[in-house]
């Protein structure tokens, strides 16, 4: 497998009047060529800031990189000049944002915005860029693409706008597509269509995909690898089958338990009690300790780091790596006590 992206101990912090918000605080993971990585975790865990960091689109100030590296094909994106970053962005690496409306410009037609993206990065003529834009609109499943080329964003439905965003993101055949909750604002049928589309495009083009989502169902369908984020850090990572069949972190299990099961409609939906700690005021020890049914004194004192628990599967939990407790966790997992 060829590593295309590697984050090493990335720290993206914000200076705020209330203190330093450690939005991403020592995040490490890598993504192979042709692979789809799911990034899951509750709201405020640092998923979007991680993605924006890779694009180097974190507003600075108040944001700043407090440490670490982002290696793109071995090159540290945090130290290359902005001009070089601009050549990569929207070209080799592109992103579909969480809010499609705020990233499409309301005063230009959809077609003009896709064309612009192509013209910035490719040595093509206006008419070639137009032809490619119409082709992209067709590719992402927009009916009457030639007509839609001249539509303004507000003239389209949410699902269609999201497709335009995807067309824009794909316009230069990226090697990495970052999709930040690409379907949250859409209704279920459209969600399924858009996710199918991303899956098909990934298979056709061989690009790598980093897919941020709240939804484990989406992960199961599209991803090979998954990282679970909690309070600005990665608490577990592994192959999708490992995370689903053998979740080691109590937080991961809590997330998995909150998926409604088929035929269990009357059962109370399991949610993890409590809240994610604020990025401004993170606890010293394990950041999940305050919500964890297994937490002991050592968990509150010292932060656990990711450790291998089986080949390809890492967890940051004092209990999970201790074999006696690992057994206890497993048996409690079976009984659904967590
Ligand atoms: N401009 C900012 N100034 C201060 N703190 C910020 C800023 N942007 C983000 N943060 C903080 O960074 C943390 C991570 O935010 P992020 O948007 O990455 O979460 P997320 O995992 O994407 O959540 P969601 O699922 O809701 O999209 C949050 O605690 C947030 O308050
Ligand atoms: Mg987000």
UniProtKB/TrEMBL annotation:
Membrane topology: Peripheral membrane protein
Record Gene3D superfamilies: P-loop containing nucleotide triphosphate hydrolases
UniProt keyword ATP-binding, yes or no: yes
GO biological process annotation, one example: peptide transport
SUPFAM superfamilies: P-loop containing nucleoside triphosphate hydrolases
Domain ABC transporter per the UniProt entry, residue ranges: 5-256
Subcellular location(s) per record: Cell inner membrane
Entry's family note: Belongs to the ABC transporter superfamily.
Protein name: Oligopeptide/dipeptide ABC transporter, ATPase subunit
